[in-house]
Write a structure and sequence with these properties.
Shape: globular
Oligomer: single chain
Bound molecules: 2-acetamido-2-deoxy-beta-D-glucopyranose
InterPro entries: CenC_carb-bd, Galactose-bd-like_sf, GH, GH10, GH10_dom
Organism: Mytilus edulis
Signal peptide: 1-16
Number of helices: 13
GO molecular function, one term: endo-1,4-beta-xylanase activity
Number of strands: 29
Helix content: 10-25%
Structural class: alpha/beta
Protein name: GH10 domain-containing protein
């Protein structure tokens, strides 16, 4: 009785709404308050009868705000739906920030919660906002919205501000999800037709590949260097997917227009393929200006259009059938070079369409940072995924880079961000995982938590590290191995999870049925007689489970015939 009561109270507390007039349906705008602008009630709405219209903004900082009571050192999320009413002349879109301010010792501090770039009028109501941490000693904050161009007016509807309550049970819940979504029943039936004595027999269940992808970025030059066997072995023995870190990027391939370097990234790609590795293509375009080839920066839009088509054509010619994925326009929320230079706010959508025309099967991705490491682009990324999907853009999934520049302070907040991105209803891939932590034991513990959360998330299909070797990765404190490829505590933790915790390798005595449960993937099922292999069958365990049957014929020394799945006619009873 007592326990039930406590649980009920806890549930009620979780969903407490902290903003007032959250649905904007009150008779007046209050307690929303206009700072340097005019707020009025509008009959346009997302839900209900009305919204609040913000106009006559005196400056970029001017806009609507609300002061709310919060608790210091707690995590919250705030979001609101904003509809841009107009564009200021000369703009294709506006960038919208949500911020809060607070005062300590009469000093005002400003904190950005989220940044939603490239908002077009035609998008209609879009969720903006994100999560934030309330600093020590702060009990009251004022949430506000900023658009640099004062002439941009907007409507607001349906806001919410709630606490992200710590869940001390998160890991057990994640493990329960792993059991449910990453495993399936494997029921082996053994028909011992002649009642052979099976005490000397055993069945080995060996998982040889994982359906869930585990991968790493690699350096092409090291892959092609014969003297780097330890590096190669670590890649082949601990991962099933790879990303060429740099040598497929446009700027680094084609310093001079018309002279792409094909003999760096492509041979490494071929080598990885020959070893059975799957490869992500990274990246076709990257609209953060300093990552563009210099020679495109001042092109006319028509020359740039031709150069982009030539890039896609050449690249696809060399990689089609060899890479499973492409990151199409890397970090688009952080760089709009192509949108600006092409004067087309939807040029990234076009890139997807152009690539689809060249290859029907390639899985095409966006790939973004600051979506789980912090919340600045989380909601914007979710919205971009949704808009691409509903506009019919041939997008397959969202790449979530996951560069943790410091260890996350709260796993609940990381989960909140993941769940938010997953609302786009697209597959998610963790594409560039790094955890910056100098203390290898601490890094191992955080890595275990992060990987457990990721592996347990039903939208996530794969995790790719952004390298492992100390000297060859950008962020040395994120290394999983020393320069000579000796795994540190974090590397060993990863190996334990990949090879043991999340793999199925079992040996069973031969009984009439073996009821096992395995991680999804490819398997070898072997019947052994006194450690001699009698027969091996390969099969794939997918979500539906597998029910192979072995038929054993004969007895004694001239033992056994063993066939999986069905009996050939010559031995049918
Ligand atoms: C909403 O307001 C506008 C302008 O005030 C008015 O023209 C329109 O008829 C109203 N629509 C509804 C459904 O009330
Ligand atoms: C592009 O043009 C700008 C100004 O016109 C100039 O400063 C810059 O050097 C040019 N860049 C390149 C790569 O040609
Ligand atoms: C860009 O695409 C969006 C979503 O499909 C659409 O609403 C909008 O009108 C397009 N903008 C332009 C300028 O074509
Ligand atoms: C089973 O798979 C292994 C690789 O895991 C392969 O070497 C072998 O040839 C396969 N056997 C059959 C019967 O397909």
């Amino acid at each position: 009785m007592f326990t039930v009561l406590i649980l009920t109270i806890a549930c009620t507390v979780t969903h407490a709404e902290i903003v007032q007039n959250a649905n904007m349906e009150s008779l007046s705008v209050a307690p929303w308050h206009c700072h340097g602008c005019t707020a009025s009630i509008s009959n346009d709405s997302l839900n209900g009868k009305q919204s609040i219209m913000i106009s006559h903004r005196r400056a970029g900082w001017a806009g609507i705000e609300q002061t709310v009571q919060v608790q210091p050192n707690h995590n919250y999320f705030f979001n609101v739906h904003l509809k841009l009413v107009n564009l200021v002349p000369g703009h294709m879109y506006h960038h919208i920030s949500v911020k809060f301010k607070y005062t300590v010792n009469s000093h005002v501090h400003y904190v950005r919660i989220s940044y939603s770039p490239m908002q077009q009028v035609s998008f209609g109501y879009q969720e903006i906002g994100g999560d934030f941490h309330v600093p020590n000693g702060v009990n009251s904050i004022t949430i506000y919205i900023e658009i640099n161009e004062a002439g941009a007016n907007y409507l607001l509807d349906d806001a919410t501000l709630q606490e992200i309550t710590p869940n001390t049970n998160w890991k057990a819940e994640a493990q329960a999800r792993i059991e449910k979504i990453r495993k399936a029943p494997l029921n082996i039936k053994i028909e011992n037709h002649d009642n052979a004595d099976t005490s000397d027999f055993k069945i080995e269940i060996k998982q040889v590949k994982s359906s869930f992808a585990f991968g790493t970025a690699v350096r092409a030059d090291i892959m092609m260097d014969q003297n780097q066997k330890a590096y190669h072995d670590f890649v082949y023995n601990n991962f099933e997917w790879a990303t060429i870190a740099n040598n497929l990027k446009w700027r680094l391939m084609e310093f001079t227009q018309g002279h792409p370097i094909w003999n760096r990234g492509i041979p490494a790609l071929n080598l990885l393929r020959s070893k059975g590795m799957k490869v992500r293509g990274h990246n076709m375009f990257w609209g953060v200006q300093h990552n563009c080839p210099k020679w495109i920066l001042n092109m006319t839009s028509s020359d740039l259009n031709n150069a982009m088509h030539a890039r896609i054509h050449g690249m696809m010619l060399h990689t089609t059938g060899k890479v499973e994925h492409w990151d199409v326009n890397n970090e688009n929320l952080h760089g709009d070079f192509y949108e600006q230079r092409m004067s087309n706010p939807n040029i990234t959508m076009k890139m997807f369409e152009w690539m689809r025309l060249q290859d029907k099967n390639m899985k095409l991705f966006l790939n973004e940072f600051n979506v789980v490491m912090d919340s600045s682009a989380t909601t914007a990324y979710r919205n971009q995924g949704k808009i691409f999907k509903t506009s019919g853009v041939p997008i397959y999934g969202l790449g979530v880079q996951s560069h943790f520049h410091s260890v996350p302070k709260s796993i609940d907040v990381v989960k909140y961000r993941l769940d938010k991105i997953a609302e786009a209803n697209l597959p998610l891939w963790i594409t560039e995982l790094t955890i910056h932590e100098v203390d290898e034991n601490k890094k191992a513990a955080v890595l275990e938590d992060i990987l457990t959360l990721y592996f347990s998330h039903s939208s996530i299909q794969g995790i790719v590290f952004w390298g492992f070797q100390d000297s060859s990765i950008h962020d040395h404190a994120a290394a999983l191995t020393s320069n000579d490829i000796v795994p540190n505590a974090a590397g060993r933790k990863y190996q334990e999870l990949f090879h043991k915790t999340w793999r199925t390798n079992e040996v069973h005595p031969v009984a009439s049925t073996i009821n096992a449960k395995g991680f999804l993937g490819d398997y070898e099922l072997t019947l052994l007689h006194q450690n001699t292999v009698i027969h091996t069958e390969n099969f794939t365990l997918d979500n539906n489970g597998a029910n192979p049957t072995f038929h054993i014929r004969g007895t004694g020394a001239n033992v056994l015939l063993l066939i999986n799945y069905e009996l050939p006619t010559d031995i049918t009873d």
